[in-house]
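Re: [ENG-882] Designed sequences occasionally contain unexpected residues at chain ends

Forwarding the minimal case from QA. Structure tokens:
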């Protein structure tokens, strides 16, 4: 397990703002102390475009390159909390984005394989993690929906986007008693999405629990050729 080293300078609001940030996380339902410690250790501003550093500890999504976004920190935290991570777990992340969620998980999990379809984002996220001294995350450019076929099984899988149903490629890469966290459309409301926790249970069945509403966009299969 790796702990990120000190990141860039403290944002303008300083320690008081950081404390308020964590209190707001608790108010939004984040209770896992390991996740809260990760939020304190990992500087979100290191993963946000420089012009948005002053918004890094606000509960807003921020734009990234390639038309992607850095989700609201409370959403990243709730999804990671739903994984119930321990230091023994190996994690597959589908959709690296800025690398922020992978950095948070790196402080708890044994290892993280994060797959990003946009090469630009994969390269930039890898560079950020290197600067922070994170050594138990590997970010690769590829199709995250297919990555688990060869690299699995994984104790935990997190999909940073929405799917109509969990694909067999991911379920097949999930270890026994493994957990998959993703978003999917709500029944009868295809434009509204909800994060769900899918637990593989004995006999091959799945137990699905609702976590929270979200605005995550659908995951696009394949690897981007242009960016």
């Amino acid at each position: 397990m790796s702990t990120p080293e000190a990141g860039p300078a403290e944002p303008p609001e300083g320690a008081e703002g950081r404390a308020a940030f964590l209190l707001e996380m608790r108010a939004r339902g984040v209770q896992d102390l390991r996740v809260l410690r990760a939020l304190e250790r990992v500087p979100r501003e290191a993963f946000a475009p420089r012009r948005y550093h002053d918004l890094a500890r606000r509960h807003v999504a921020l734009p990234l390159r390639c038309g992607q976004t850095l989700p609201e920190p409370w959403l990243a935290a709730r999804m990671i909390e739903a994984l119930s991570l321990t230091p023994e777990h190996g994690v597959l992340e589908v959709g690296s984005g800025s690398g922020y969620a992978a950095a948070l998980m790196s402080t708890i999990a044994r290892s993280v394989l994060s797959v990003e379809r946009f090469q630009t984002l994969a390269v930039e996220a890898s560079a950020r993690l290197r600067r922070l001294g994170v050594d138990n995350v590997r970010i690769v450019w590829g199709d995250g929906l297919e990555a688990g076929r060869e690299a699995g099984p994984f104790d935990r899988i997190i999909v940073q986007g929405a799917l109509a149903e969990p694909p067999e490629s991911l379920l097949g890469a999930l270890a026994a008693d493994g957990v998959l966290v993703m978003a999917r459309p709500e029944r009868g409301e295809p434009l509204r999405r909800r994060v769900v926790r899918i637990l593989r249970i004995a006999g091959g069945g799945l137990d699905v629990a609702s976590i929270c509403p979200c605005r995550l966009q659908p995951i696009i299969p394949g690897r981007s050729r242009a960016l």
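QA comment: On inspection the terminal residues look reasonable. Helices lie at 14-27, 33-41, 73-83, 100-106, 119-131, 144-151, 168-171. Proposing we downgrade this to a documentation issue.
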